[in-house]
Amino acid sequence: MLNIDIKLEKELENPILVAGLPGMGLTGKQSVDYLIGKLNAIKISSIRTPFLGVPAISIHNGLVEDIPEEIYSFFYAKLDNKDILLFTSQSQPATPEWQHIVAMRAIETIKEYNVELIYTLAATPIPYFKEEVDVYGVATTPDLVEMLRLNGVKPLSGEGAISGINGLLLGYGKKLGINGICLLGETYLVSGMDKIAPLAVLKALSKILKVEFDLSQMEKEALEFKEQVSQVIKRSYKEGVEEDKPKYIY
Fold this sequence. Notes:
single chain; 250 residues; 10 strands; eight-stranded mixed sheet; alpha/beta; Rossmann fold; 23% strand; 36% helix
């Protein structure tokens, strides 16, 4: 139904999967794209099909752009003797059925390479802007939940759900015997592009994996983002105060 042909002519030693698809704040997508660039990852597979993308066309300066067909891709990178597979996409499948199919086939594919652990990167919503955000996590075993706690990640308490492929990868991984973790950075931008949550998530991942990522560019972007949002908040507050002032005096 959906074939994924990975072009990787080598055996991997205890590889991990790091996945991040579009979601709140574009947190997971930005995080994985950043790693792909900084780790000089090579593309090893793409799912080529037009009907799994967003049911819309893109327009630039009045011109209709081509419908993208290369939407979901696997990449490979090596860092500190760690083999890392990365998985991302331009969009989430438009229907729940295809979200399940893509997630299931992705897991079946990486199982052939003996992936030992899955990390998905995502976000959890908060109702207000924070300059320093927390990272929450879920895992497929109690031992991994405790490991998250020891690395400064707050396990999500109570009942809940992680929607889309970022969550389904863990579910199908668990079903096929591959443990997994989802790291969720706090974001107040449900539909916009956050710059703080991706940085927080990658810092948490770096600590868990005990590897150093070059996060300097992301740190610069996060600082600029904080300054921009702070100015917007101050301006909104000032305008609100002005509106509350009496317009005339008796």
